[in-house]
Amino acid sequence: MCLVSGQVPFIDFSQQYQTIKDEIDVGLKNVFQKGNFILGQEEKDFEQHFAAYCESTYAIGVNSGTDALYLALCALGVKAGDEVILPSHTFIASALGISYLGAKPVLVDIEEQTYNLDPQKLRAAITDKTKAIIAVHLYGQAANMDEINAIAKERGIKVIEDAAQAHGARYKDQRIGSLGDVACFSFYPTKSLGGFGDGGMIVTKDQAVYDKVMMLRDYGRKGRYAHVIKGVNSRLDTLQAVILDAKLEYLDEWNRMRAEKGAYYNELLTGIPGLITPVTVSDRTHVFQTYAIRVKNRDRVLDQMQARGIGVLIHYPIPVHLQEAYADLGYARGDFPVSERLGDEELSLPMFPHITGEQVDTVCLTLKEIVSVAA
Ligand SMILES: *Cc1c(COP(=O)(O)O)cnc(C)c1O
């Protein structure tokens, strides 16, 4: 997958595909012949492998990461009028599931260092209506889960991990996906474990949540004909499961390659005036789903990088509280200053497991030239 053509693409998964091509070809043909496209044995196998990978108990395949969040909230009993807390700097999908249920997203600013939910600011956002907290592990590094879990436990609130950007990352030697009550993953093609289409997964150790989501994703069904709740249709295709299962075996290796390139970027870019490199907290690993820097005059730097053939993107220019879709929440500019600063300054550099050292050199040389002029 090549998102931006040019000297250095933002993402290029062609070498990744070569590694798993034979296995995928055989696996897909097998499914074509068997015709078990919906909830086939291969899908169940992948759920088991993914639950084990996350060092958790249950995994349930669904349509997307967005649906995973929606169904997890639903299974935890979140309903109209409830409040759910999440960070203001995240992909909008983190908030959408809350809205589908008629509940209210309550936003909290992020930490200056990790760009994740700031536990210091979390306590003040909790009310009697708060039912859950969504902790997003943004860019590939876990949120401060010990502090978030401690505050949640004190108040009897559930914790959902939005793990869509951090498959395989560790927090104090535990895998993300096993750190809250429920974890939600996305297999959107550009994620570090990505399918050849949409997909998602809910991971939990809680059997009641597992039982509920198993029904919810399949028309609220228990058995073939009995429908005990009003469910939806949100399942992971057997074909996607075959692809994802083949990729899962390489995920740790590919994450290691990302981390290596992240460290190389840091080495080349640290100490440049006007440029802030990502920080990895000592008690966790960073899997660099995104290599996010901060830079002054970001929009000018972005345009010039693109003009010189370097694939760069912004994650994300508009924080959730300033999105038109969420104008009804009544937030204004100035409410979440750290998120707003990220929105103005963040720049995502090319990152994928097989990016070469020479490609990173090219990106950094180009960036240094542009920044020294733009400053
Ligand atoms: C990608 C993403 C989602 C949504 O996943 P989809 O599979 O695209 O629906 C949710 N949260 C975060 C943080 C994401 O990056």
Would you write up a description of this structure?
This protein is of the alpha/beta class and 375 residues long. The chain has two domains: 15-248, Aspartate Aminotransferase, domain 2 (3-Layer(aba) Sandwich); 251-374, Aspartate Aminotransferase, domain 1. The protein has twelve helices and 14 strands. The strands form four sheets. Strands 1-9-8-5-4-2-3 form a seven-stranded mixed beta sheet, sandwiched between helices. Helix 3 crosses helix 7 (207-216). 48% of the residues are buried. Pyridoxal-5'-phosphate binds at residues 64-66, 90-91, 93-94, 136, 162, 164-165, 186, 188, 198, 200.
CATH fold description of the largest domain:
Aspartate Aminotransferase, domain 2
Radius of gyration of CA atoms, rounded to a whole number: 21 Å
Which percent band covers the strand fraction? 5-15%
The helix-strand sequence is: HHEHEHEHEHEEEEEHEEHHEEHHEH
Stretches where pLDDT is under 50 for at least 5 consecutive residues are 1-5
**Biggest sheet character:** 7 strands, mixed
How are the strands of the largest sheet arranged?
A: 1-9-8-5-4-2-3
Average pLDDT, all residues: 96
| Global morphology | globular
Output the structural class.
Answer: alpha/beta
Q: Total strand count, please?
A: 14
CATH superfamily of the largest domain: Type I PLP-dependent aspartate aminotransferase-like (Major domain)
Please tell me the CATH architecture of the largest domain by its name: 3-Layer(aba) Sandwich
